[in-house]
């Protein structure tokens, strides 16, 4: 379920000038990496991983702090940057483990301040602001829903986390109330996209997730409407085949991870752009294939979260990186407060909530929220969203992709300089080269007539 942490970085990586490669540690992850032009290598054994020290690899970008990926940090010839898989106000976004990396790359000033306030050992000089290069895929707000068109609401709650904090996810305490309130409005089209790890720790979250899915299915049965368009479904199948052809050429359906690694085609000029276009065409075909106005539960890797952003008029989520990324759209968003904090304390405790509508677990504020989306003159938070986006995501210029590419180049150059310094230091420590020593001989001794000859020393 954690494949999304790598998948969100595929497109920015494909846009780099160098020769990027994806290094995985778990065999089963090979087939979970999304469509990409980038070669994938899986190194399950530590002994194999350590051979990267003698490779031309200069920089490794780490999207998570998992134990197996961190084993490579002991290699001194490679520079390491922690890029994370999203930023939020949760404690996991300023984990003390981040100080193990050479640099920590963040989106904007808010994350830099977060590390400074957390006092976890990450020095300010090692924090690099690069923006969020993935967010080029997020389209800006084009205005309120057209008259007569449905208001599309994306409910994308986070998961329950490892610490059992009831404020982590709204699924358990507020999810069903929120969904019922949204489904009660005939002008709403709901997209429900739960976090991939929902229910992995707390069985109550898994049970609530299943009940929400059933609410969505029941609402669709009650709403009725047109059935899926056969021609649109056929078009989606064609787009999927084209995307597979570009990213999985030559693979048998039953190919294992070793065969996929060995037979993957080498990247060719222009193919990364072809993959991007094919992925975009697939997403358009996917949305066109769905019955008009029908609610959807979105759980597969495709369509991606940002594609859902582009279809939504409103986001409802929790304190998570989802709301930080959604700010790039400029659209309204709401955060469910399932903590025990009063609203003013909740806003002060979590800066990403500053421009949000705060919803209580009973979802009583949903009708007024929908009205503010449909009638922009009622939206009092537009200016605050723009200011918060600048603080969380950084400036629009230079573009985030350029800043990301520049950070990669700078760290690669530092890796080259580091290797040169180490080679020079090693050369200074070695003794000067000279002739090899010959066999060692004992000093000559007087010999007695009856004594046997002394044997030569063995070398």
Give the topology, please.
Blueprint: H1 4-7, H2 10-14, E1 22-24, E2 40-42, H3 46-49, E3 59-62, H4 67-70, E4 79-82, E5 103-106, H5 109-118, E6 127-129, E7 151-155, H6 171-183, E8 188-192, H7 203-223, H8 230-247, H9 257-263, H10 271-289, E9 296-297, H11 305-311, E10 314-317, H12 321-326, E11 333-336, H13 343-349, E12 357-359, H14 366-374, H15 382-393, H16 400-429
Low-confidence stretches: 451-459
The largest beta-sheet arranges its strands as 9-8-7-10-11-12
Determine the number of helices (DSSP H or I, runs of at least 4 residues): 16
CATH H-tier superfamily of the domain at 151-227 and 293-393: Glycogen Phosphorylase B
Q: What kind of sheet is the major sheet?
A: 6 strands, parallel
Principal-axes geometry comes out as globular
Name given to the CATH architecture of the domain at 151-227 and 293-393: 3-Layer(aba) Sandwich
**Chain-averaged pLDDT:** 85
What share of the residues does DSSP label as strand, in percent? Answer: 5-15%
The third-level CATH topology of the domain at 151-227 and 293-393 is Rossmann fold
Count of strand segments:
12
Gyration radius (Cα, Å) is: 28 Å
């Amino acid at each position: 379920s954690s494949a999304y942490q790598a998948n969100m970085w595929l497109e920015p990586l494909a846009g780099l000038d160098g020769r990027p490669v994806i290094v995985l540690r778990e065999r089963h992850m090979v087939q979970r990496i999304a469509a990409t032009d980038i070669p994938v290598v899986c190194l399950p054994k530590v002994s194999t991983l350590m051979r990267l020290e003698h490779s031309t690899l200069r920089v490794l970008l780490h999207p998570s702090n998992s134990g197996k990926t961190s084993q490579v940090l002991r290699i001194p010839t490679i520079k390491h940057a922690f890029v994370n898989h999203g930023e939020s106000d949760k404690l996991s976004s300023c984990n003390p483990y981040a100080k193990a990396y050479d640099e920590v790359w963040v989106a904007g000033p808010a994350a830099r301040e977060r590390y400074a306030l957390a006092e976890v050992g990450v020095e300010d000089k090692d924090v690099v602001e690069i923006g969020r290069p993935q967010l080029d895929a997020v389209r800006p707000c084009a205005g309120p829903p057209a008259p007569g068109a449905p208001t599309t609401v994306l409910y994308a709650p986070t998961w329950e986390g490892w610490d059992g904090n009831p404020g982590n996810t709204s699924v358990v305490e507020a999810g069903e109330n929120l969904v019922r309130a949204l489904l009660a409005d005939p002008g709403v089209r709901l997209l429900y996209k739960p976090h991939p790890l929902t229910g992995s720790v707390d069985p109550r979250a898994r049970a609530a997730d299943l009940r929400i899915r059933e609410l969505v299915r029941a609402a669709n049965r009650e709403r009725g409407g047109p059935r899926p368009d056969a021609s649109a479904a056929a078009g989606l199948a064609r787009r999927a085949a084209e995307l597979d052809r570009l990213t999985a050429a030559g693979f048998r359906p039953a190919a294992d991870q070793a065969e996929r690694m060995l037979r993957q085609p080498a990247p060719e000029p222009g193919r990364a752009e072809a993959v991007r276009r094919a992925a975009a065409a697939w997403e358009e075909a996917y949305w066109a294939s769905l019955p008009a106005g029908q609610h959807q539960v979105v759980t597969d890797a495709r369509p991606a979260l940002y594609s859902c952003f582009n279809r939504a008029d409103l986001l409802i989520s929790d304190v998570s990186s989802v709301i930080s990324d959604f700010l790039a759209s400029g659209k309204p968003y709401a955060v469910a407060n399932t903590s025990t904090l009063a609203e003013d304390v909740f806003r002060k405790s979590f800066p990403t909530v500053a421009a949000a509508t705060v919803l209580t677990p009973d979802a009583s504020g949903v009708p007024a929220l929908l009205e503010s989306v449909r009638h922009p003159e009622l939206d009092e938070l537009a200016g605050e969203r723009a200011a918060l986006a600048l603080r969380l995501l950084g400036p629009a210029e230079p573009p985030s992709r350029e800043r990301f590419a520049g950070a990669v180049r700078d760290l690669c150059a530092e890796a080259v300089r580091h290797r040169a310094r180490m080679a020079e230091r090693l050369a200074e420590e070695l003794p000067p080269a000279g002739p090899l020593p010959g066999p060692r001989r004992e000093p000559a001794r007087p010999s007695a007539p009856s004594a046997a000859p002394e044997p030569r020393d063995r070398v």
